[in-house]
Structure to design on (168 residues):
């Protein structure tokens, strides 16, 4: 849906056409937010979409869009009564619903979040950019003005873990 909304109705088909056959098959049909798809196929699609459409902004825009799209309307309503720290920490707690590897450690304060992702099987800078966008999007669903999401340490750059921070 994101690619169709931003880049036209044939955008997702263009991405699928560029993927290896097994990745395209894994993502074909109706893609549902509550289904766990193969991480490697998902990341291959993100990388391909970046290359085809908007390498400078697509991962963060997709992550923010995904937070809004994948969090159901009842939960979005309830988020208005929480803090960004609560929303993002909840997201890190349900990580294993969608990923078979990776563990989050979260540090929360009234005005900030610091999350460390350890042991995620895939090392990919674009995927980390999607995660940063998701953090921004989930935080904004609480009504807060998220003015800083950063990714100061990344495994794709040689760090032993990925660290994400957010301030509001």
């Amino acid at each position: 849906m994101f690619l169709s909304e931003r880049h036209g109705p044939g955008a997702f088909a263009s991405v699928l056409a560029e993927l290896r056959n097994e990745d395209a098959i894994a993502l074909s049909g109706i893609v549902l937010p509550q289904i766990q798809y193969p991480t490697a196929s998902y990341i291959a699609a993100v990388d391909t979409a970046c290359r085809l459409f908007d390498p400078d902004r697509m991962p963060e825009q997709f992550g923010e869009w995904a937070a809004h799209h994948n969090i159901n309307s009842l939960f979005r309503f309830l988020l208005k009564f929480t803090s960004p720290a609560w929303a993002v920490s909840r997201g890190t707690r349900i990580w294993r619903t969608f990923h078979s590897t990776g563990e989050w450690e979260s540090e929360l304060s009234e005005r900030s979040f610091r999350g460390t992702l350890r042991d995620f099987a895939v090392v990919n800078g674009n995927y980390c950019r999607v995660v940063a966008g998701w953090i921004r999007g989930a935080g904004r669903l609480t009504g807060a003005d998220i003015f800083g999401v950063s990714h100061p340490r990344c495994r794709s750059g040689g760090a032993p873990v990925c660290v994400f921070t957010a301030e509001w």
Strands lie at 103-108, 112-118, 148-153, 162-167. The longest strand covers residues 112-118. The chain has a mean pLDDT of 89. The chain has one domain: 2-167.
